[in-house]
Amino acid sequence: VSQVANLTLVSSACDMVSTAYASTKESHPYIKSVCDAAEKGVKSVTEATASCVQPVLTTLEPHVSAASEYASKGLDKLGEKLPLLQKPVEQIISDTKELVSSRVADAKDAVSS
């Protein structure tokens, strides 16, 4: 999970969502109160679940560790094959706009000629 979270694409997308969430909460007081209540509920459930799940996780630790190592190797290979994962969202959007603009310009030139 931490390896996925550290991918540039994922971390920049999370930053964008977090910024939008915070901005929305600040701009709309009614949404803020709903979000605050939801956050408290999620925190309470997470804390309650963590204490119940811990004994199970301790028992499954060797299996979780092996699965984690396997997933890590798969993510490394995925990162090699998809360099897009190493770019921030802003750059991907910019590159896509540039590509679409270029294709539209080419199409206009083809039609006009």
TrEMBL record:
Record keywords: Lipid droplet
Subcellular location: Lipid droplet
Superkingdom per UniProt: Eukaryota
InterPro entries the record matches: Perilipin (IPR004279)
A GO BP annotation: lipid storage
One cellular component (GO) term of this entry: lipid droplet
UniProt keyword Membrane present: no
Major site of localization recorded for this protein: other
Pfam families the UniProt entry points to: Perilipin
Statement: the UniProt record of this protein carries the keyword Cell inner membrane: no
Annotated family: Belongs to the perilipin family.
Name this protein carries in UniProt: PLIN3 protein
Organism in which the protein naturally occurs: Rynchops niger (Black skimmer)
Gene: Plin3_3
